[in-house]
Each structure stands twice: as C-alpha cells, then as structure tokens.
Write a structure and sequence with these properties.
With 200 residues, this protein is α+β, with helices and mostly antiparallel strands. It folds into 2 domains: 88 residues, no CATH class; 75 residues, no CATH class. 28% of the residues lie in helices and 17% in strands. The chain contains 5 helices and 9 strands; from the N terminus they run ββαβββββββαααα. Helix 3 packs across helix 4. The longest helix has 22 residues. It is elongated and about 85 Å long.
Amino acid sequence: MALFKCSLDPINPTALIGVNRRTTPDLSSHVLGDVVWQPQGYEPGYYLWIDHRRSYIPVEFLEHSWYFLVASNEFYFTSLEDRILFLQDNTGYWFTTNPQHPEYKAPVEAEASSSALTLNTSNLLGLLIRDPALSPFVTVCSSSSSNQGGSSSSESVSPEGQEDQLRTVAPTHTPGTPLEFRQEADVLAGVLEHILDIED
C-alpha cells in the first residue's frame, strides 16, 4: 500500500517527504488515466509519460491525489509542489460510485421480502359481514336474488332484507364462525391481488 512516511509540510511546499510505493498494480484503469505500471526497463511502480521530457516519470497515488516522485537510490520522495492537479496530465480518479471516492454514498438496499404482499384483514371482518358495499358475499347475494326474482338490481333492499339474503345464499354454517372469516379473507385477498395486477 502506498503512503507518505510523514506528513507533507504546508509551510514549505518544496520539502521532500519519503514515500512507500505500491509493490503491485492495484488501481482501476479509470483511476490511472494514462498512468502505466512498470514500463519495460523500469523499477516496479506507476509511471506517467511526459512528452517534453520524452520519458516516463515515476508517480504515485496518495491520499486521493497523484504525485510526481523523485528517485534517490532505492528511495522515493515527493512534496506538495509535486502534486499533480486533479485530472491534469491525463491522470484519472475514482468514480463517485467507487467506495474509495470521498463523496461515495452507499446505496440503500431494500429489505428482501419472502412474500410480495401482506394483507391484514383483522379489523375488517366485522364490516365485511354487515356492509354490502364491502362484502363480496352480500353483493353476490343481492345480484343473484334480484336475477331470480326478476326485480331490478337498482332497487334498494332494507338491512333486514340483506341479512335474509345473506342467510339464504351463504353456507349453512353460523355467520361469524372461523370458516366464514377465512373465506372472506381469501376473497378479499384475491380481489386485492386482482386490483394490484390491473394497476401494474
């Protein structure tokens, strides 16, 4: 891993600071830009071709900036003055989608759900039994009895008449038993699924 051996000196920007260079190429191509790893005949490390010098110059990516390096025997040094300006000399940088980018924000992942839809009808069961606008059983009863008796479906039926129709058409078990609740919940879930399918 590349790092400064001590902090850069903001008071003296030309002061040389020792650098530990990378020993293996571990940066993405978009971070490199035109920077290359160990051209033929050079020591391991990153290098940048400089046209006016007609040669490769050693560089290193340190604390989110590229720096030109000065070689002395087996050691490398840099200074604040040797920092390459952002994207200058065809150097690259992290994408904002890279975790290494200073402004990276991890995407929020939606929680995985084992079921696509959860339906809670515990508070509706009492209403479904009594309200013809909500209950599929009462609606079915009203339309079937009007077809059998020949009367118009627009005729109003008294609440007592609705209860009679419900009792004549509904199953023979006692209203309000678990069987009826389960049937209403199943029907309501089916109707809701159908409505959601239509909206999609």
